[in-house]
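tl;dr need the bound structure. longer version: we got a ligand (heme C) that a collaborator sent over and nobodys looked at where it sits. i said id run it. heres the input, straight from their email, havent touched it
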Amino acid sequence: MRIADVVETTAPPRRARLGPFILVLALGVAFGIGTVVRAAGSGQGDRRGGAPPASAGASVERGRYLTHEVAMCVQCHSPRDGSGRIIEDQEFRGAPMPLRSPYAGAAFALRAPDLRELASHSEDAVVRLLETGIGRDGNRPQLPMPPFRMNHEDAQSIAMYLRSLP
Ligand code: HEC
């Protein structure tokens, strides 16, 4: 019998030695995935307006998210100070449009109306506008108001959020 044969038969098989290592690795992966899933579920991001709320029914919180972070209503419908910053406690109070139409012959509205006022008097009209693009007078609002086609949940969330403002 050669020495090499002895070493071969007495050394533990390779798989047995790897066993504990694989177990530790598997536990580590499982723990890692668990941590990521929990972090995602808690919905805590470092974004200014908080993480987007899950879309389970209309909510004021979702309305805030859509008007500030997605559809940008706040950018056109809010008055600004001398350096162009939106005046925070005046958000959605209506504002002049600082733009002229870039298209020959196409009208541009000169003012974006007060949405707090509008939503408090005619919530349904706001919802209809956001779902169909049809304004209070039965026509489409002039540009640059975008022709939104939202689902009911999103339109309702925005109307609820605007109504919730003082
Ligand atoms: C790019 C600028 C801009 C953005 C973005 C914008 N709007 Fe407007 N919006 C306007 C202007 C300008 C008007 C006035 C249109 C007119 O007088 O015909 C208007 C009109 C409206 C009206 C009145 C429509 C009617 O019935 O007469 C509502 C309600 C409204 N916007 C809601 C919103 C909401 C909610 C959002 C976001 C989801 C939004 N707007 C985003 C510019 C904007």
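gonna send this back to them w/ a short note. The beta strands are 95-96, 111-112.
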